[in-house]
Amino acid sequence: MLTTDEVPALLALNHDLRTEYVKDCQSGMKRWNRVLEQAGIDRRWRCRTSASTAGRIFSDHQIHAGGEVVGADSWQAKESSWLPTEADKAHVRSLMPRCTSRARSR
User: Fold this and answer.
1) What is the pTM of this model?
2) In this prediction, what percent of the chain has a pLDDT beyond 70?
3) 8 A C-beta contact, residue 75 and residue 91
4) In which domain, by residue range, is 74 found?
5) CA separation for the pair 41, 75 (Å, rounded)
6) In contact, 78 and 68? CB cutoff 8 Å
């Protein structure tokens, strides 16, 4: 059943932009997953669900990247495999040293 709801224009625009962005990301993930498959790699990329990025609406729930709502115990048991750990963050920071030299102009 179709319904019509009146919503603020900015909210509607943000929803439309987010929807298109998610579609674009999913398309990119499909391409990368084909590359992984052709290379014989079993791991696959997947996009986060809209629920996991919706902010305040779902802030009282633990939702993993696949979109499944999990209990607090399950979340705490697997949080470090779903989210970057402090060690992961430190490793990424180590890959981005500060550049102190000036670029040369030609």
Assistant:
1) 0.44
2) 81
3) no
4) 48-98
5) 27
6) no
60 lies in the same domain as 43: no
Residue at 85 is within a domain: yes
What pLDDT was estimated at residue 32?
92
Q: How many domains does the chain have?
A: 2
**Other beta carbons within 10 Å of 31:** 11
Query: In this structure, what is the dihedral angle of CA atoms 71, 75, 76, 79, given to the nearest 10 degrees?
Result: 180
Percentage helix, strand, coil for the chain under 3-state DSSP, each rounded to 5: 55, 5, 40
pLDDT tens digits for range 53-81: 555 556 677 777 677 788 888 888 888 88
In this structure, what token pair is assigned to residue 6? 């009146």
Alpha-carbon distances of 58 from 11, 21, 40, rounded to whole Å: 17, 20, 37
Inside any domain, residue 42: yes
